[in-house]
Specification:
By secondary structure, the chain is an alpha+beta fold. The protein has a domain at about 25-70. The protein contains one helix and two strands, in the order ββα. The chain has one helix spanning about 60-70, and strands spanning about 40-45, 50-55. The protein has a two-stranded antiparallel ribbon with strand order 1-2. The longest helix has 13 residues, at about 60-70. The termini are far apart.
Length: about 70
């Protein structure tokens, strides 16, 4: 399966998103659509900045949250 495919889903073309690129999982790079994207707002404990984490699964979202806490 190509890396940019979404099983059972539709990956919007740039023309459909107004030129914006579709979101990708920050963990594996998989292209996501509105039905598969998971987002979470996380705060860096060191400098307090907020980061939007985008993931394709709850497991990848958890790994991203944990990696933010380690740094």
């Amino acid at each position: 399966m190509p890396r940019d495919s979404v099983p059972g889903g539709h990956v919007p073309a740039r023309a459909e998103t107004g030129g914006a690129r579709p979101p990708r999982c920050h963990r594996c790079g998989r292209v996501l659509d509105s039905r598969t994207v998971l987002r979470s707002l996380a705060h860096d404990p060191v400098d307090g900045t907020a980061t939007v984490l985008t993931a394709c699964s709850p497991e990848h979202l958890q790994v991203l949250r944990e990696s933010l806490l380690v740094h």
